[in-house]
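Hey L., structure's done. Input below.
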Amino acid sequence: MNTENMTMKFIRKLPIPAEIKSRYPVAERLAEVKKQRDLEVQKIFTGESDKFLLVIGPCSADSEEPVMEYIHRLARVQEKVADRIFMIPRIYTNKPRTTGKGYKGMLHQPDPEKKPDLLEGLLAIRRLHTRVLEETGMTTADEMLYPENHRYLSDLLSYVAVGARSVEDQSHRLTASGIGIPCGMKNPTSGDFHVMLNSIEAAQSPQAFLYRGWEVHTQGNPLTHAILRGSNSKHGNNVPNYHYEDLRRLYEMYSERGLENMACLVDTNHSNSDKQYIEQIRIASEVLHSRRYSGDIRRMVKGFMIESYLVDGKQNIGDGVFGQSITDPCLGWEKTEKLIYEIADQV
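Output:
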């Protein structure tokens, strides 16, 4: 008698990461580029480098060509500010949906106007991250929404973020302990700093757990750090946490833990900006002022996470505006370029 009550419909067995990587390999010369970039990012988090980090790009990487156009422009600006700023393009290919509905990113829908196709999605995100490295020499950032999927891109990424809805999850914390690159833990939507710091502590510690059908052991990831993205009140209002008092409190709580490589990025959008994308410019300026005022905050705040694309604002899927976000509103290119130069002048 079959007593199984699962209602999942198993569609097809997808290729494992090794199969996808063999289909879209990283050339040896590009692997060396990634190695050098990873080392430079690591030095920022350990304090050996005083460069300011920008994890910057579209809210979601919804289409390959406008993303590539954006990153080519970003690479040209990077050359001009390389002595002060290190940029990692955000290519977010899977998007958390609070209700489970709506566009979930390129992984699910490589074409936002077509039905989900997860096999083509895996290939599409691998191609896009690889193409960025090949054409611009820049390595990328993505959100670790699904921890078991990290290995599909592990030889391409220089930065990973764990989102506000995932930061309390055990599998995210344990996987982060073994990824070997900087991993930003966002504060949860509740805004509780303790939860975020618990997550950092777990990821910095050695762990043993089940991953992709294997028993794995990790040594811990000392490059795990905080991301402040604002929070939501019990009434659903957005509450910022980038002000001087917030940064000071985080510094004190962080110090009490004795964690390695104290570091924080400030997310200038999301609940910090009340999703008013233009506010990112003002928020960045205020945080930079706090860094100038306090040496402790200067040492802790290593950079920003900025949502930026070719065209200001957002559009609906199918509107056809090249390089405009179909998820959260983003800063357009002209404002972005100006902001990068302003940051470079102040760090």
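Residues 12 and 119 are 9 Å apart (CA to CA). The chain has one domain: 29-346.

-- N.
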